[in-house]
Amino acid sequence: MENEQIKQAGLKVTAPRVKILSILERSGKRHMSAEDVYKELLSQDEEIGLATVYRVLTQFEGAGLVCRRHFESGQSVFELNSGEHHDHLVCIKCGAVVEFLDPTIETRQKRIAAEHHFKIEDHSLVVYGLCPECQGKR
Amino acid sequence: MENEQIKQAGLKVTAPRVKILSILERSGKRHMSAEDVYKELLSQDEEIGLATVYRVLTQFEGAGLVCRRHFESGQSVFELNSGEHHDHLVCIKCGAVVEFLDPTIETRQKRIAAEHHFKIEDHSLVVYGLCPECQGKR
DNA sequence: GGACAAGATGCGAAAGATTTTCAGTTTTCC
DNA sequence: GGAAAACTGAAAATCTTTCGCATCTTGTCC
Fold first, then answer.
1. pLDDT digits over A49-65, tens only?
2. DSSP string for residues in A15-36
3. CA distance B116 to chain A (A)
4. Which fold has domain A87-136?
5. Do residue B120 and residue A127 have CB atoms under 8 angstroms apart?
6. Per residue in B54-77, pLDDT tens?
7. Which of A120, B20, B23, B129 is the most interior residue, by most CB within 10 Å?
8. Which of the listed CATH numbers 1.10.630.10, 1.10.357.10, 1.10.10.60, 1.10.10.10 matches domain A2-80?
9. CA distance A17 to A63
C-alpha cells in the first residue's frame, strides 16, 4: 500500500502524495516528468497543483522513493526507485527508454574514478539513439 | 585562425563569432556555460548580448565545433570539440571536470545498444563524485 | 471526538535558462 | 558598389522549476 511507503519515508500521508505515488506505480511508463504526472492528475480530475507535484516528487527523491534523471531534453524525469542502479538507452525520436545494467561498465567506472582519486557519489550513463521502431521512419 | 573554422562551418565570419570562438579557445576552462562566455565578453568590454552567445554556441554546436553537455546543474556547458569522444568525471562540490576515455566502456555500450536493436547516435557518461581536493573538506 | 502544532497544499508570482521576435545592420557574392 | 541573405542586440516570450503565503490537513494528546 502506498500509505505505508509514505509513512516510512517520514512524510505525512496526504491525498496528493498517495495519488502521485499511485500514478508512478500504476502508469505504464517507468519514467515520467513532473508535467506527465500533473497531466495524469488532471485527467483524473484531481485538484493538485503543479507546484505540489514538484514538491512531492522532490520529497520522494529525498526519501529515496524515486530517482530524478536529467536526460538531455530540458526537463527532469522521475522513476520509482527499484533498488538496483541502472543506466538508460533513450530514443531521441520517440523518447522511449530502456533500462540496462552492465557490471563491466560499473567496474570500469570505479577504476577510472580511483585513478583520478575521485570518490564516486553517483553516475549517469545515457546512450541516445534510435529505437527499433523509429529507425524505419524518417 | 578562428576565421577559417567559422567559414568552414558554413557560417558568416562576424565579430561575435570570432570573439566567442576565441574565448573558448583561449580561456583556461575546457567547459564553459553560455553565462561564463557572456561574462568573459563583458569583461572585455564587448557589446555582445547573451542571446547572441546562445545563438552562436548553438550554431557552433550544429556545425560540430563545440559540444553541449547537460551536467545535472541546471545549465548547459559547452566545450570545444576535440574530435575524440570522451566522458566526464564531475566534482559535485567544486564543479571541477576531468575528462576520460575508456575503450572498454565504449565497446560495452555498443554491444548493449545492439542487443536492444538501438542505433546509437550519441551517449553521455558522467560520474559525479568528490575530487581529491574536496574530499578533505566537509 | 475535539483542539493544536507542525506540516502540506494551492495559487499566483518569481526565478533561471534558453529561445524567439523584430527592426536595424553587416556580410557575402557578383 | 549594391542587393539579397544572413546576422545582431534588446526586449519579450517560453519553459521548467521554485517560492511566498494564506489556508487547510494530518498526527497526536487529552
1. 999 999 999 999 999 99
2. HHHHHHHHHHHHSS-S-EEHHH
3. 8
4. Dna Ligase; domain 1 (3.30.1490)
5. yes
6. 999 999 999 999 999 998 888 899
7. B20
8. 1.10.10.10
9. 13
